[in-house]
Design brief:
- By secondary structure, this protein is of the alpha/beta class.
- An eight-stranded parallel barrel has the order 7-8-9-10-11-12-13-14, surrounded by seven helices.
- It starts with a strand and ends in a 19-residue tail after the last helix.
- The protein has helices at 11-23, 51-54, 109-121, 146-159, 170-179, 193-200, 216-228, 256-263, 272-276, 279-291, 318-331, and strands at 2-5, 27-32, 37-42, 59-63, 83-84, 91-92, 98-102, 126-128, 162-166, 182-185, 206-209, 234-238, 268-270, 296-300.
- Helix 3 (109-121) packs parallel to helix 4 (146-159), helix 3 (109-121) packs parallel to helix 11 (318-331) and helix 6 crosses helix 7 (216-228).
- The structure holds phosphoenolpyruvate and manganese (II) ion (MN).
Length: 350
């Protein structure tokens, strides 16, 4: 159920409707839009009695949301969600292409800094790096854990790049939330519902990677889990799905971009690194991602991919990253977007 407030409804009227929804035993989710505020209602297993809601001051109408996902749906919020990073010019969603780049894993301070410096020099705004790695083999490199988080915090401090890193479980989520700007939930955890709910109780943006065999609806329901707990800053990331194709690690499903945008207001990034598994395919698919309307890309970059502890074959060289930035900058205006080059700190408040 969704309560659509009148365009000129006052803050008090919105609060009164929220209080009424709570009184009925449900949870209100006020989502301000450009024209009006909509209040999503969750926690109901059946119909909510719309009668008394419709008669409250400031209410325009009460609508039944028929889709399984509600808060993630455009029915509830018409305009695209734009996630802002306080004190910087960085955004995810909206008119500016977000570029997230960095190694698959943080391997050492030297490795992480060498790559981060190249990314910052080429105009990237977000640095990715795994501290806690979901590996198919228990014998493979599992990540440096807290040490890696501290290295990334230093990168943020020295270079300004905002940090995106994965939480694998409840314990690492608490640590990641303390150190990172964006919490990544990996493909293998897309349906780890307790982890999604825990991330929903935090207030940092959460980037959810599509599960290897997840449908569009399952993907959006993962976002809904986070949002239903009150965290509306969710970013979707397509990273390839499993198919019969054997020319690539996964099949990057760019067709999900317009399909998602049709039904959801959430930002969508494309990960052509895991999506193809091949260095030579990363740039072409990153270009295609921007061309098809994605809000940005996440790519793996390594200065010595031949000795990388994880995902070397799909990691691009820093020089390729710089070329990618130039190419995306040219493509973006064709689809009404632009690529901001470099992160800038806002002048300190007076
Ligand atoms: C990653 O981004 O490093 C990663 C492990 O991605 P995914 O969850 O998509 O496999
Ligand atoms: Mn990887």
């Amino acid at each position: 159920m969704l309560v659509v407030m009148k365009a000129h409804a006052t803050e008090e009227q919105i609060q009164a409707v929220c209080a009424h929804i709570e009184l009925l035993g449900f949870r209100p989710h006020p989502l301000p839009g450009a024209e009006r505020t909509a209040i999503g209602i969750t926690g109901n297993h059946g119909e909510v009695d719309r009668g008394n809601l419709e008669s409250l001051p400031g209410v325009a109408e009460v609508i039944r949301v028929t889709k399984a996902y509600k808060l993630a749906s455009r029915d509830v919020k018409e305009e695209d969600t734009v996630i802002r990073f306080a004190g910087t010019n960085a955004t995810i969603g909206g008119g500016e292409i977000a570029v997230v780049a960095g190694p698959c894993s943080i391997e050492s301070r030297e490795q992480a800094f060498a790559i981060a410096e190249e990314i910052a020099a080429a105009g990237g705004q977000f640095f990715r790096g795994g501290a806690y790695k979901p590996r198919t083999s228990p014998y493979a490199f599992q990540g440096l854990g807290l040490d890696a988080l501290k290295i990334m915090a230093e990168i943020r401090e020295k270079l300004g790049l905002r940090i995106v890193t994965e939480a694998l479980d409840s314990a690492s989520l608490e640590l990641v939330a303390e150190w990172a700007d964006v919490i990544q939930i990996g493909a293998r955890n897309m349906q780890n519902f307790s982890l999604l709910k825990q991330a929903g109780r935090l207030r940092q943006p959460v980037l959810i990677k599509r599960g290897m065999s997840a449908t569009l609806e399952e993907f959006l329901m993962a976002a809904e889990y986070v949002m239903s707990e009150g965290n509306y800053q969710v970013i979707l990331c397509e990273r390839g799905v499993r198919t019969f194709a054997d020319h690539a690690r996964n099949t990057l499903d760019l067709s999900i971009v317009p399909a998602l945008q049709h039904v959801s207001h959430l930002p969508i990034l494309i990960d052509p690194s895991h999506g193809t598994g091949r260095r030579d395919s990363v740039l072409p698919m990153a270009r295609a991602a921007v061309a098809c309307g994605a809000h940005g890309v996440m790519v793996e970059v390594h200065n010595h991919p031949e000795t990388a502890l994880s995902d070397g074959p799909q990691s691009i060289y820093p020089a390729q990253f710089a070329s990618m930035m130039d190419e995306l900058e040219q493509i973006a205006p064709v689809v009404g977007r632009r690529v901001p080059r470099g992160i800038r700190m806002a002048a300190a408040a007076q």
